[in-house]
Amino acid sequence: MTSAAETALPAPVELWAPGSAVVALGQGDGGEEAVAVWHVSPQGAPTGAWLVPAAEAFGEEETARRLLTSLERRGITGAVPGDVERILEQLSKAAGVDEWWREQLFSPVLAFEEVVARRAEIEKVVEDARATKNVAVVEWPADVTGYDVREFEDLRRVARLSRTTGEACGTAILVSRVLRWLVRQWAETEQVKNRRPYVRDALGEPQALPPTWLAAVQTGSVNVLPL
To answer: Worst-scoring range by mean pLDDT, 16-30, 159-173, 203-217?
Structure first.
């Protein structure tokens, strides 16, 4: 089991936001099936990585427990929700622990939908204010509206990231990059509240992450596994 060094990235969100983890199943370094776990910081930067042969991850209690420990106290996601659940089910079974992770799962696709929805809310508040105030329309650095995003592959295309191979690490890296992109889109969205107090008054204080993602990592941050 190996660990990757932290990668620096400008912090677009508050540091208090909990971290996340990406899990993936695919080809390992030697061609065998493997489980990959990637840690992602609150700012979307990769901070740690593990790659373990699936035979060990799902067949050895100690190895399964080590992998579960790497997921502890984090929100958890992956490219395909059903695959993430199956990986966690098999790891939990091998480790001899009950289901513990349901409330820690989040979907990048749903997080993207929340970015789009929040921007629509902000634009509505600004448009209403323009009826009585001399305020400028909102100009977003990147337009994320008008896309039909139903699954992770759609989101990858919107983020303009290259398609990955079937390798476990490649999939985990791609999901991590999508999360990094989502953090930036969300931060650019919520920063409008700081620049325009009337938007903050209408919609509340800025949040560090999209609501369902933030709920998952906040739940994970206080969930200690019985290992």
So the answer is: 16-30
CB atoms closer than 10 angstroms to residue 122: 20
Beta bridge partners of 46: 40
The pTM (predicted TM-score) of the whole model is 0.89
Name which of 169, 227, 198 is nearest 51 in CA terms.
169
Query: What DSSP assignment string belongs to 129-193?
Result: HTTTS--PPP--SS---S----SHHHHHHHHT-PPP-SBHHHHHHHHHHHHHHHHHHHHHHHHHH
First to last CA, the chain: 19
CA 64 to CA 92: how far, in whole Å? 7
Indicate the burial class of 212 (C-beta count within 10 angstroms; 0-12, 13-18, 19 or more). Answer: middle
What is the CA 94 to chain-centroid distance, rounded?
25
Amino acid at site 69: T
Tokens 């696709």: give the residue: 109
Strands (E), 28-69: 33-40, 46-53
